[in-house]
Every structure is written in structure tokens, then in C-alpha cells.
Amino acid sequence: MTAATGAGTALEIAVTSPAGARIARDGGADRVELCASLELGGVTPSQALVAAAVATGVPVQALVRCRPGDFVYDAEEIALMTAEVRSVVAAGAAGVVVGALTEKGALDTEAVRRWVAAARDAAVTAGRAVEVTLHRAIDQSADPVAAAALAPGLGVDRVLTSGGAVTAVDGVATIRRIAAAAPGVEVMAGAGVRPSDIPRLVAAGAAAVHLSAKRPAPARRGGAWVPMGAAGSSAEADTHHVTDPALVAAARAALDG
Fold first, then answer.
1. Where are the domains of the chain?
2. Pick the CATH number of 16-217+227-256 from 1.10.10.10, 3.40.50.720, 3.90.700.10, 3.20.20.380
3. Which terminus in the chain has less CB density within 10 A, N or C?
4. pLDDT value at 146 more than 70
5. CB 99 within 8 A of CB 61
6. Is 118 a residue whose pLDDT tops 50?
7. Which family does it belong to (predicted)?
8. Range from 3-12, 34-43, 222-231 carrying the lowest mean pLDDT
9. What is the DSSP string of 35-49?
């Protein structure tokens, strides 16, 4: 098996539930990223949700994002997410997934440093190593390559990126540049990844691939549909997603050549 077919490349599946974590584990995922409200781009999962996902036995990387929307945070939001970093690690997370930008579109290095420090402190308390992933906030930055190049100096272990594009396969050239700009950091390609895209991403230097492998859950509405919140603007949109075992297995097969 060659590197181009995915030898040594990690598979991460984004999940929102213990059931999703079990499906990812059974399908051969190396780890999961756990969040709530994936339909809104993901927000911080509760401690109970983290603990339940950890109990499945798959390593859990917990997203820390206090709200949907942009990645420019005020002091109160940064403090809240610092506390959330500690809480998800205390609940058993093997890592945290964080990111922030300044209003000028640069990586907010002070916020990231604070979250890295909180993760390392929580790791000491927990008595185990804790990883830090810099998430796709960098894809909304003015210069994704420059933002990713700061990761080694911030103590970040991993960068999740689409190369600044809508999908990772569209950003493959920039992913290649990011891999060269961030030595010692695991570059993980994610966003709209299909199993058939995986060989191209690995060939571009991605050391890991990330996908949600999701499908809409079947509607189980017992009565009439009534809109509730922005996500429920239509009966078709008013649903949630679940992890698809077939997509996880296909991604694993693509990595294994």
C-alpha cells in the first residue's frame, strides 16, 4: 500500500450522538469529532453527551464553539469557551477543536493560545494527553495558508481545512500549500468530502480526512408540522442528521486502497 492510497492516513467522522460514535467506531474510524447542532455548523456538546460518546470507546475530539455564526468572538465568549475546553476534557474528551478570527480576518492567536493552555492544564488534571485541533475558521480567514502556518508556534496538534474552498477537493491545491507551511502539524482535509475524493486529498499531503458521513434522519413527527426556529423553515429542512454506516465504510475502504 502506498501513501497515495491512504496508508497511515487517519479517518475522522463528525458525529452528534453516542449512536454516531458507535457507527464510526464499527466502520473503522480512528476518532470522531463530536458536536451538537451539526445542521448549524456545530456547537459545543454537553458534558453528558461527551461522556456518553467517550463510553463507546472511540477517541472523541469535542468541538468548542459557543454559538453558530462567525468566528470573531468577544472577551466574554472567549472566557466561556475556555471554561468549555476544561469541561469537555473533564468529561473524557481526547481532544478539543477550536478556532477564532480577528475582525480583520487574521487568526486570533491570543484566543487560540488561551484555549491551548486550558487544554494542557485540563490534561494535567485528567492525567492524560489532550490534543488540540485548529478548525475551519482558518478557511474564512484572509489567508488560510498564513493562518495555518501559525499553528506549530501555538502548540496546535492538527489543522482541519478545506483549503479555503467550499469543499476540500476544490481546495486541494491550497491544502498542499498548508501541509508544506505547517510542519509537524497533522493537516486534515474536510468539507464535503466524498469517499471518491479521498485519494486526491491524500496525494495532496492530507495526513487525515474528515467527513460527516451523514444522512437525514427519518421524520417521526406525530402531528402537523409547525415551524420552530431558523432551521425549521420548511418541513423538509426540519430534521436532523444521523451517521450513515455505508458512508463510513466507504471512506475506510478508500483509505485502505
1. 16-217+227-256
2. 3.20.20.380
3. N
4. yes
5. no
6. yes
7. Belongs to the CutC family.
8. 222-231
9. -B-GGGT-BPPPHHH
